[in-house]
Amino acid sequence: MVAGGSPDYIPRFQALVRDAGASWDQEGLGFRFRFQADTAGADIVIRWRTSFTPTERAGQTDLLWDRLGHIRSAVITLAIRDPRGRLFTDQALRAVAVHELGHAVGLPHSADPGDVMYPSTRTGTISRRDRATAMLLYQLTPGSLKGEER
After folding, report:
1. Which of 88, 142, 137 lies closest to 117, judged by CA?
2. CA-to-CA distance for 104 and 141, rounded, in angstroms?
3. Which residues 6+ apart lie within 8 Å of 78 measured at CB?
4. Domains in the chain and their CATH numbers?
5. Higher-scoring residue by pLDDT: 5, 117
6. 98 bridge partner residues
7. Segments in the chain forming alpha helices (H)
8. How far apart are the two ends of the chain, measured CA to CA in Å?
9. What's the half-sphere exposure (Cβ side, CA atoms, 13 Å) at 92?
């Protein structure tokens, strides 16, 4: 994790992200998050910024894929303030971190507002659907689910 990045950055934010990672770890999906201060060689880098104004976005995950469809690395950027300039609560920051870590392991958005992967994060709790999607994702071979074009 990169400390700083915004004048509003507070070191306790790192604990919120670690807690978000622990939520995924507890799901027993075959991967675990290990956080370290040195980002050299990290698979996932977490950065901070003041906000994504003028958008309503609270976080963003940029993925780098290899030619076989495997995720090579991810950069997660988390906002500290909403578009109106108010600090996000610890609960909101943690929820966004859970959501963005889901993207970092390959999960797309969900259509169900009860899922942590719903586009506008409303919960920091990983749902049974989120877990099932992750389990399915890691059982599939990389590539398109549409099948071969004829």
Report:
1. 137
2. 17
3. 13, 17, 46, 47, 48, 49, 58, 59, 93, 96, 97, 100
4. 12-139 (3.40.390.10)
5. 117
6. none
7. 12-25, 90-104, 128-139
8. 45
9. 13
SS3 130: helix
Nearest to 44 by CA among 69, 61, 26, 31: 61
CB 29 within 8 A of CB 131: yes
Report which residue type is found at 51: S
Report pLDDT digits (tens) over 138-148: 887 666 555 55
Q: How far is CA 8 from the centre of its chain?
A: 21
Going by C-alpha positions, the residue among 100, 101, 131 that lies closest to residue 115 is 131
pLDDT for 1 beyond 80: no
Q: By the 8 A CB rule, do 97 and 12 touch? A: no
Q: From the centroid of its chain, how far is CA 46?
A: 9
CB atoms within 10 A of CB 92: 17
Question: What span, in angstroms and rounded, lies between the C-alpha atoms of 1 and 18?
Answer: 10
